[in-house]
Amino acid sequence: MPQSNRIEKVAIIGATGRIGKHIAEELLQTGKHTVTALIRPDTNLASLPAGIQKSNPVDFNDPNQESLTAALAGQHFLIITLSITAPPDLHSAIVRAAVKAGVRWIMPNVYGPDVFDEGLQKDVEVFAKGWQQCVEIERLGASYVACVCGFWYEWSLALGEPWFGFDVKGRKVTLFDDGERKVGVSTWRQCGRAVARLLSLPVEKEGEGVCLERWRNKGFCFSSFRVSQRDMLESLNRVLGTGEGDWEIRRQGTVDRMKEGREELGRGETTGFVKTMYSRVFFQSGEGDYEGRKGVSNGILGLPEESLDEATARVVQMVESGWTPFG
């Protein structure tokens, strides 16, 4: 723990990525942290947030992780953000290097629904993997704080039918069950703000205020919205100036959709992974509603109340511009 009882030095893996960049920018805006991006030899330095420090180039393929361990020396907190396509053993290698370097706090590559829920762990491999990443950090002697933020709102609504069920451009939607099940979701901006405010707290309690220790080896729950598909559809109608009659609406049970996703996954189709994950979170048993089940820390940290329609307008702009994260 830093002697000042503050997290002053923060390292980020993936500072040019979708979530990592927002976290880095918000941390830098606080003026309370020295933020260092751990870069590869081929990192596009121009895409890094202004004001961020850069490590010496790290060879993440080195089985001994010597350059990574050296880059992490002296850091108080490590934030890991990795692509879903990252090598399966990379997260573990990073954690081991961080522990070897003396990093006491780690935020694992867990940014989504509640991976601490046993039902989600049982039914969806990626959620079980997220939980296992948390367990490993604690087992190796460091402490973790895992983000429970739900699915990313802009990403999930813009990408197409396999995600939230919407084809915004084609004006089509598949409602899961009755479309009324509410789940927690977050915007990228809210994720960045939440992490920055969390790491700006004292590590140990000072007076009556909250501290980072409150979330040691736990999930850190926050959100932008607690919404159903019906809420999303109504927001789209307000933003687009459309009505329900302008949409082709079909319905599919979440259990059937999850079965369909598993069949697609068995055939090697990427949509199967997505359908399995998203349909499970919308089950009527309510595991996706972590806000309703556990509560969120928005108020404690003073996170702003966001506008659903403003977030939806960003989605529409993304869709109309032809945005895609897949190259």
What order do the helices and strands come in, and which of them pair?
Blueprint: E1 9-13, H1 18-30, E2 34-38, E3 53-54, H2 66-72, E4 77-80, H3 90-101, E5 105-107, E6 111-112, H4 118-123, H5 125-139, E7 143-148, E8 151-152, H6 153-158, H7 161-164, E9 166-167, E10 172-176, E11 183-186, H8 188-199, E12 218-221, E13 225-227, H9 229-240, E14 248-252, H10 254-266, H11 270-281, H12 290-294, H13 298-301, H14 308-320
Parallel strand pairs: 1-2, 1-4, 2-3, 4-5, 5-7, 6-7, 7-12, 8-11, 10-14
Antiparallel strand pairs: 9-10, 11-13
Q: Taking all residues together, what is the mean pLDDT?
A: 96
Q: Quick one: overall form? A: globular
- Tally of strands: 14
Distance between the termini: 41 Å
Q: What proportion of the residues form beta strands (DSSP E)?
A: 15-25%
Overall description:
The protein has 327 residues and is an alpha/beta fold. The chain is built from 14 helices and 14 strands. Strands 1, 2, 3, 4, 5, 6, 7 and 12 form an eight-stranded parallel β-sheet that branches. Helix 1 crosses helix 8, helix 2 crosses helix 3 and helix 10 runs antiparallel to helix 11. It starts with 8 loop residues before the first strand and ends in a 7-residue tail after the last helix. 43% of the residues are buried. The mean pLDDT is 96.
